[in-house]
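User: Second chain of the day. Same drill as before.
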Amino acid sequence: MKKKVETIIIVCDSCGEHFVNGDGFTCYTDDPDGGIMLSEATSSGWLDIDGRQYCPDCWHYDDDDNIVCGDGRKYNGNTHEPVIESNKQNDNEL
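Assistant: Same format as last time:
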């Protein structure tokens, strides 16, 4: 018998790379919400932040210990809150 199964895979929100674990799997049939695979991804250096996932090639810490992601988003490295940078030119005009 063939049966259709829906599952979740982890995809980098910056480059589109799919997470593949050490056994070559991208998903499990008994992981309907993707939680098991996401746990494996984060253990392998992937970042799960603000509802987005980033592969190890698409995020890094800057000199201020903020997390900088390949899609341009920046987060506080401790709290994972988004970092909103002010426009210094506009600040000087106030």
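The two ends are 70 Å apart (CA to CA).

User: Great, on to the next one.
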